[in-house]
Fold these 3 entries.
Entry 1:
Amino acid sequence: MPNVAILVDFGSTYTKVVAVDLDRAEILGRAQHPSTVDTDVTIGLERAIAGVSAITGADVRLRLASSSARGGLRLVAIGLVPELTAEAARQAALGAGAKVVKVFSHELTLSDIAEIESLQPDLVLLAGGTDGGNRDVITLNAGMLAASNIAAPVIMAGNRVARDAVEKALRGGGKRCYVTKNVLPELDQLDVEPVRAVIRETFIRHIVEAKGLDRAARMIDGIIMPTPAAVLEAARLLSLGTEDEPGWGDLMVIDVGGATTDVHSISSAAPGKGMVPRGLPEPLAKRTVEGDLGVRVNAQSVVELGHTHELRPDLAAALRAPQAKARGDFLAANTGVLASTPGETRLDVVMASACVDIGMERHVGHVKESYGIHGAVQLLYGKDLREVKALIGVGGVFAFGPEPREVLRAGLARDELPHSLRPQSPALYHDAGYVFYAMGLLAAREPAVALRLLKKSLVNHG
């Protein structure tokens, strides 16, 4: 009997299941069923698993799951300086798979607190001050949170000198508080991994129950992470490899969805020759989320960006056509509709390409020329991703769309954007089996199997 793992993703629309033979490193089957999170989540889960069982006929030894249902993991980040601790907190949250709904900086006001209460986040990440630096602001903000009606757990990841006072204030106000290392211990040192670990632990401890997924958790071995975190873990595994099998090196993953576009990069590349880094240091694993880029819910936004963004000329022209606006309006109001004519299919490709183009531009680093006493200097803001070896497309646009290679090419370097540090000549792949999230789940338990399956599941476009 095969040693089988069932890997589940609770999406807002579908509950997806992938069955894997762990001994032979093979995918045995896939199934999905409309999610039933709003009624009884186990109904959709049982039916999706039944679909896989019918295919495999095997006993299941391991069940793991991720979730993006009910809006995913919604987080508010609070820091001291917008460009430093607030940005550090945002990066840590995104890397943990959270959806950052708002970032606040400096001292919180009563109107800020009222806004956070109205946002009803799942988590609050409180940062501020380097170790030994400013402690007054984070302590004041902790007091404001303690006196509020905010129900979400608070993770404190700021100045270690202020930890005791912050924890005392929050617990005194009846808040659930978790303390971890400072996300920005020094101005030139970003430490995101401890924060990411605590966010995921808190997700398991509190958010699963809040999202109504606790019943499903009893049927599996644990809902261990938000779905975007699973995708990032798969990207990290594919990049770094295992002790026994090499990875692919620096790479990027783009996940184009109906509402958002996620961009992930795994790269430790040093800045190019003559470049002087500015701003926060960049993490090895970085994720950005573009909440205005999607091919259904945000179709109108994508069409509008065709008029304002420096898109590739052919994409801009297509999005400025009258039929594009009409189609964008229609898709935003009818998100489940699929293309049924060649013209509609072509516009889907154009919109997906625009999401990749804009999402890539917002994720990669940029250089700006400055002048000093020794002449011109190239200032680097963000990551230099020109030399990444692979660019991978993930999601339905790539798995089921007609032109995955064309969509991916929209993210490559262009002569008209000389200051943009986009990938120049990576190999292009897409996740044809829609298994990226599943291999991210499996990475913690069976990394060698997950890595081999990732490599087998990706289609190479050269």
Entry 2:
Amino acid sequence: MRPSRRDLLALGAAATFAGPAFAAEGPALRDLAKAKGLYFGSAVGAGPKGALTGSFEDPKYREILARECGLLVPENELKWYVVRAKGPDSFDFERADRIADFAKANGQALRGHTLLWHHPQWFPAWVKTYDFGPRPAAAAAKMVSEHIQTLCKRYPQMISWDVVNETVDPKDGSIRDTVFSDAMGKEPVLDLAFHVAREAAPKARLVYNDYMSQEVGNEQHRAGVLKLLEGFKKRGTPVDALGVQSHIGAENADSFTGFGKPQTKQWTAFLDEVTGMGYDLLVTEFDVHDKGLPAAFGPRDAEVAAYAKAFLDQMLSYRQTKEMLAWGMVDKYSWLQNQWLRQDKAPKRPTLYDDNYKPKPLREAVAAALRAAPAR
């Protein structure tokens, strides 16, 4: 649903009136979400201090997380290329442990991302060249199983896990090829991941997570995800929910300007099919890509907030939506700052707080969507 002109003008007036003193009023987002029976939270990265991936090292960022979030997810710290960077016999949990300790100290739940990012680009180099020997299917299954068991045992407090991430190729809807699918077959490795996760984390919500979206150009991606979910259901694979990454707004392309064109009817039909199969929904990586929008903060923030409010109103209207995760809370730590740069070279404003740690109209749009959501 595209924001109306009246919505944009109203939000623009609010942004202009508030200016740099704009402040969050009323309950924290975690409390607004809790009142409706769901979680609100954010990703946080424990990478190098000062880097895009190092938001956890910023005390002001941690203050925002503690105040606003009832749920945290490590941004990169549990991905294979971080936790198993050194080789097949080594795990490094130092970064993820620090986030887990912070969550516990602040009464926050924790969710895991991701047990199997089934995409050839995102495995460490040693995985891509690993020799699985004369019985590759058994050796690959052993490696995947031990990886999942180790992470789930380390973090039994996880309320949900992105068990498999981004295995659908958006170009044609097929399942991606990796070293594991080459050894085991495409469906078998995915099914194995969920079965092992169910045994290792019996209380966690098990999620298939992907970036299919509402905008034009996602048709094949959505169809592929539906086919994947149908296959899981037919084979009895223990998948509880679809994670909708919700990187909304501009298309991820160097030449793109403005917002994409939402396919409201098709997106609704997609969500109806997913929930009709018995799956829950999660908003897992929410941000708004503002490439090509006006440079002035007032008009830009207004368009971002209105576009986000329409999207979140629809997503939260489904009582099956159980969690909402922002992919970062402060603009300067957003992964979008070094991807698909704006033509005017200006920084992007895709998150709920600006570089001065002040809440933006997007924060109020999220709050308004949570207030309007039905209880679940």
Entry 3:
Amino acid sequence: MRKLEGKVALVSGSGRGIGRAISLKLAGEGARVVVNDLDAAPAAETVGEIRARGGEAVACPGSVTEDGFGERFVGTAIDRFGGIDIIVNNAGYTWDGVVQKMTDEQWQAMLDVHLTAPFRILRAASAFLREAAKKEALEGREVFRKVVNISSVAGLGGNAGQANYAAAKAGLSGLTQTLCKEWGRYKVNVNCVAFGLIRTRLTQPLSDGEARITVEGKEIRVGIQPVFIKAMEDQMIPLGRAGTPEEAADAVYLLCSPESNYISGQTLVCGGGLKW
């Protein structure tokens, strides 16, 4: 039997990259998935792939930073699948700049997407989680649910040019540890996965051409200098290479599986041994 059979998972930012890989992994283990992406088309593609593989999924497109998104995301899971078992807060992007050149807009955008949005989603889910846990306790059942917040080694040790991103991810660690304490009574395991260098469109070499993403009408430059990628792979990552989205998804799955029922408030680094 697949280990997540019958579970319901919400995965934000899952139309592309790591989020897509997470959705496919959880669905492959039996979870029914609510797929979110800023754009409707990638969300629909992920849903289609899950269904083509015999799984169940539904799309909930839109920006995680919109007012009311958390309630809509959570409501989709309850209305379509009858509950919530797993929440993966994955949506996000980078908007880099050294501190003296960073605008207030850049700073706030990272806090909004990486910290405020997960807070709002989890707040929206809290009523269901509390009531479900109380009902199960009265029935003498112990049912564990999972929250996995996606962080970064930048949030653990900082990263030049990413004061906004690193601060938001560091804040996410505090949110994780606090909800571990608040929600333990409801049998909710709340953990973080901090990624190192994972191959996605946000970390592609700049030599491949200037890459840009569009976020709510703004074009944002993304990518990493090839010399920095080489230095990381040759000198900083003991396994000698960047990770794949599928390997990143495997780390998230570990904290969604029944084997993590007595693990909470922790940050798992998925970085090939990278130290920060």
